[in-house]
Amino acid sequence: MTDRPENDIYRADPLRVWEYSLPGGHRVMAGKTDADNDRLSIKVAGPNDWWFHVRGMPGSHVVLMAAGNLTPDRNTLHQAAAIAAFHSKARGGGVVSVSGTLARHVTKPRGAKPGTVKIRKERIFKVRPALPEI
């Protein structure tokens, strides 16, 4: 039990994400707000997870958590990129460009607004916005 008030600033709000399962046991998470995007990209994603975001438009930060330290195959990376395109303003478009990189190459610039990150070693995926089939 704690003596801090209920609305204490030290209490972490729950992470709000959409979650999807991909074949092979891989998991994909997409942030719902700018603050959730920050936490997902900087705090939750491991260095060997993949990070995705649609290029040039607002959208969710998407993290692909590979099953058992396996390297995701090309199809799995494209599926995660399609989820990033779906959770963006480009959802209604045709083929969309999505940036992807290992999460270790994603950093938060000092003083940047929530949801703003800097990426290195970017790969571009051309995908149609889609969610995985259930």
What does this structure look like?
36% of the residues are buried. The protein has 134 residues and is of the alpha+beta class. The protein has two helices and eight strands; from the N terminus they run E-E-H-E-E-H-E-E-E-E. The model is unreliable at 1-11 (pLDDT under 50). It has a six-stranded antiparallel beta sheet. Strands 6-7 form a two-stranded antiparallel ribbon. It is globular. The chain has helices at residues 34-44, 74-86; strands at residues 17-22, 26-31, 50-54, 62-65, 96-102, 106-107, 118-119, 123-127.
User: What's the helix count?
Assistant: 2
Strand tally is 8
Alpha carbon gyration radius: 15 Å
SSE-based structural type: alpha+beta
Stretches where pLDDT is under 50 for at least 5 consecutive residues are 1-11
Strand order of the biggest β-sheet: 1-2-4-3-5-8
- Shape, per Cα inertia axes: globular
Name the average pLDDT: 87
State the share of residues found in helices, binned by percent: 10-25%
Order of helices and strands: EEHEEHEEEE
Strand content: 25-35%
**What is the terminal separation in angstroms?**
41 Å
* Major sheet: 6 strands, antiparallel
